[in-house]
Design brief:
CATH superfamily of the largest domain: HUPs
Largest sheet: 3 strands, parallel
Strand content: 5-15%
Helix content: 40-55%
CATH class of the largest domain: Alpha Beta
Radius of gyration: 30 Å
Shape: elongated
Bound molecules: glutamic acid
Number of domains: 3
Number of strands: 12
Distance between the termini: 78 Å
Strand order of the largest sheet: 1-2-3
Structural class: mainly alpha
């Protein structure tokens, strides 16, 4: 079942804190985590450890805010790491890398060049990768490369040196990372050999692509926002209130930067939805971590037996390198969306209400604050069967938050439901208002029953009463059951909305 080779498996995730956690990074972290946890979980197995290392040697591009947001996103996904995260900047400050650089210089395996230190690539290199197999590169195809920057670079180690030393010092047994690092691995094993380190097992995972075959990158969001801005002839001054200067917006539009914040802010202003790329995008759109984890696991890994839906425990129990494929996977948004919808539908109602409340409090505070506890419970119950993401109820139930006189009536619905047959719908609504005014118990069941009884007494189908009511209460013909809808809107507002609807949609001769 598992590829147990070492008693004490140590894996790690080593992101560079230069931006938010991309789904590709999350998938890599997930596999590394699952492999370590599998070793910890299997009876008689070792004590697998999963480490987190923040690779912040590129000082110009790294930030602590990005490191914090990466960690938040990992926690949200439930990918927990062992011990404290290691920061390469701290290890640099402790002189850890310099000691090894000196060792390489002394052994003649590296040399100084304009203040920088370069590693001498003067031998053929070969290594084995669990996914891509045996890889050999002749020395003629290799070039010396910088392992420590000069004074201008703060004498920081480059990624190549730091990654090798840190993996060694923390006892990493398996390096699991994206296949874009495959060519770097020749450099890494050359340094390992020169320092006399044991080699870890290498496991490179295939890339994640857009459905059109392009690499799924952070830039896709900027691209979409830029297109929306150009199409709408967006005023570059438009983001000044949000603290983004016209110069920066201009630079963004001219493709001089792909700043995520600018992309998000433009999208917000123009009310367009950008493709989700980073974990936090999916979170903001109301995806559940379990659905995302399940979906990401299937990118490059195949559990076999046509298994498709599973949770973390299954992944931990069954993950194996043997079932990792070499070919790149396409990111199928529709499939992820379906996973999410199914998971929402299957949640125990209490759990859904709690999760929805957490999401709304974080993203749509007006919604969470606008409903009292009893209303919220009703709202969650009414919308669970309709919500495919945690954000959808906000859009679907926008009518709950607007002022009564700001209800926008869908004109097609007005025509069909209120005006047809000489205003039959309006007449029914008018009559029903009197019945409704006499109801004391404003609970969904009583209200549902009241509508039914009224419809029966008039020998009308339920829809003939419920639809005009829906238009009056929500402006449209789509909402939860009529009892739920009336109850959610509340007694006073329902009566007021019916009155307004009759007035505003009256047929004028
Ligand atoms: N800091 C590298 C990255 O973000 C990590 C590479 C590795 O896992 O070794 O891609």
């Amino acid at each position: 079942m598992s590829d147990v080779q070492h008693q004490h498996i140590v894996t790690r995730f080593a992101p560079s804190p230069t931006g938010a956690l991309h789904v590709g990074g999350a998938r890599t972290a997930l596999f590394a985590w699952a492999y370590a946890r599998q070793q910890g979980a299997s009876p008689g197995g070792g004590d697998g450890r999963f480490l987190l290392r923040i690779e912040d040697t590129d000082r110009a591009r790294s930030s602590d805010a990005a490191a914090q947001s990466l960690m938040n996103d990992l926690r949200w996904l439930g990918i927990n790491w062992d011990g404290e995260p290691v920061y390469q900047s701290e290890r640099h400050a402790q002189g850890v890398y310099d000691a090894y650089v000196q060792q390489l210089l002394d052994a003649g395996r590296a040399y100084e060049d304009d203040g920088a230190v370069r590693f001498r690539m003067d031998r053929d290199v070969a290594f084995d990768d669990e996914v891509y197999g045996h890889i050999e590169v002749q020395k003629e195809q290799l070039e010396d490369f910088v392992i420590r920057k000069g004074d201008a670079g703060g004498r920081f180690p480059t990624f190549h040196l730091a990654v090798v030393i840190d993996d060694h010092d923390s006892g990493v047994t398996h390096v699991i990372r994206g296949q874009e690092h495959l060519t770097n691995t020749t450099k890494h094993v050359a340094i390992q050999d020169a320092l006399g380190f044991d080699r870890p097992t290498y496991v490179h995972t295939p890339s994640i692509m857009n459905p059109d075959g392009s690499k799924m990158s952070k830039r896709d969001k900027a691209k979409a926002a830029r297109k929306a801005a150009v199409d709408a002839q967006f005023d570059v001054n438009g983001l000044q209130p949000a603290g983004i200067s016209a110069d920066r917006v201009q630079a963004f539009i001219e493709k001089n930067n792909d700043d995520d914040d600018i992309a998000d802010t433009i999208a917000h202003h123009l009310n367009v939805v950008l493709p989700e790329i980073d974990v936090r995008d999916f979170r903001a759109s109301g995806y559940l971590p379990g659905a995302l984890i399940n979906y990401l696991s299937l990118l490059g890994w195949n559990p076999g037996d046509n298994v498709e839906r599973f949770g973390r425990d299954f992944l931990v129990a069954h993950f194996s390198f043997k079932r990792l494929g070499k070919s790149n996977s396409r990111f199928d948004r529709d499939k992820l969306f379906r996973f999410n919808a199914d998971d929402i539908a299957a949640m125990p109602p209490d759990n859904f209400a709690k999760t929805l409340h957490g999401h709304l409090a974080e993203r749509h505070g007006d919604f969470a604050d606008g409903l009292d506890d009893a209303q919220f419970a009703m709202f969650a119950k009414a919308y669970q069967p309709r919500a495919r993401t945690l954000s959808e109820p906000v859009t679907l139930a926008a009518y709950l938050l607007v002022d009564d006189d700001a209800i926008a009536y869908d004109q097609k619905a007005v025509k069909k439901v209120l005006h047809k047959a000489d205003g039959e719908g309006l007449r029914v609504l008018h009559e029903f208002a009197d019945t409704l005014a006499a109801v004391d118990d404003w609970s969904p069941d009583t209200l549902e029953q009241t509508v039914k009884t009224f419809a029966e007494s008039r020998e009308l189908g339920l829809g003939k009463v419920a639809q005009p009511l829906r238009v009056a209460l929500t402006g449209s013909t789509v909402s939860p059951s009529i009892g739920d809808t009336l109850s959610l809107v509340g007694r006073q507002r329902s009566m007021h909305r019916i009155e307004l609807c009759l007035e505003r949609n009256a047929i004028r001769a």
